């Protein structure tokens, strides 16, 4: 987390979890966590360690909300993919769904989440036995439960049944660490329990150095999203309304750009975010330079990610086809989010000249759009030091959760319209009205796509959303942009990631593989 919020600490803890390679430990030198954590400062450090894998900073391996979800998940979708600067063969294969259970990013997402869960479990197990202020003690445990719920929520959505580990595993014997997969329904039940229990002991807001930590509102908001994912429409509606009408003070920024600028971080729309800080020991957001065109004097850009281009009929284009359609062109011309989410050119800070790139040289001004949400205007070169936070859940998400669940439960009621139209109004769009349930559903799906582009949400939405017949939209969405591999293999194969083969072979022989990935 940011230095001013939650200082980075390096905590040496044996990572003997289901996601780790075989350990070679000397039992005589092993120190259990119960003996290591003794003071209030130790308790704070334990929880801070559980936060740290949300981002990880620029000087470590990619972490979930610091590019790993982009290269390991969203590149697979229909909005973004690897640009010319993304040379990793494993990433490029995964982006067209040509990957296997041995894929590096598949393994990294699994391992990093279980490493974070281990840290959360250590905090949950040890902090109650440490003697210090009772209110702070409960709050720290609640923060760890919130984080454990978030990490498991990511895992169960991506991998399905996953090992549910709720206590620190202290054994040094590999056989003791091997845990079979737990049914997804049981994992979801634990997530609900953790979030409900966490909310009871978390404050509504923080001040000073604690701003950015999990709050009661964050726990309840994430719980609404969990219910939506489980298609528990009534509970999703009730929970979302409790957040919308609750004592948390959440609201939309009038200016969409304020959602992403470091100057307005942790504001009224930010419910929970991965925290980044520029120019401070590698605590920056790595995503910013990956989205910048390379070769610009005074800027460090790798152009490692770009929009997915695909062909659509267009009578105004040569041969009646627009070969460079993308998410960028889905935005209405008057949508204020378009010019915040994308740029089509960059100004060099050293030459003051403008640089961009055309899609098609035969079409005037048909410029390539570049993602722009994590650009930090306070950092001249935008090396791996952007201070832009990554929103994990924000208030517009809760509004759209409410709109979607209310529509599924009762059709497009006045309440559902109120929630979606709040988001549209901020974007400068007209209110929706007069839609049937299926049309309203599609409107919410599109609104989510435009509102949260490049925020690590699209893949989760693709595997969750359904059409009017109850069928998933993943295959059709990917086929539309030319990702034909989605139709290969077993039906529904790509709705789940494969269980990392390395985990099955080297770490946990009790794991089984997902259908279609054998």
Automatic annotation (TrEMBL):
The keyword Metal-binding does not apply. GO terms for cellular component: cell outer membrane. It is found in: Cell outer membrane. InterPro entries: SusD-like_N (IPR033985), SusD_RagB_dom (IPR012944), TPR-like_helical_dom_sf (IPR011990). PROSITE patterns: PROKAR_LIPOPROTEIN (PS51257). Its main location: membrane. It comes from the Bacteria. The keyword Signal applies. Gene3D superfamilies: 1.25.40.390. Keywords: Cell outer membrane, Membrane, Signal. Residues 105-228 form the SusD-like N-terminal domain. Residues 1-23 form the signal peptide. Residues 268-517 form the RagB/SusD domain. It holds the Pfam family SusD_RagB. Belongs to the SusD family. This is Starch-binding associating with outer membrane. The lineage of its organism: Bacteria, Pseudomonadati, Bacteroidota, Sphingobacteriia, Sphingobacteriales.
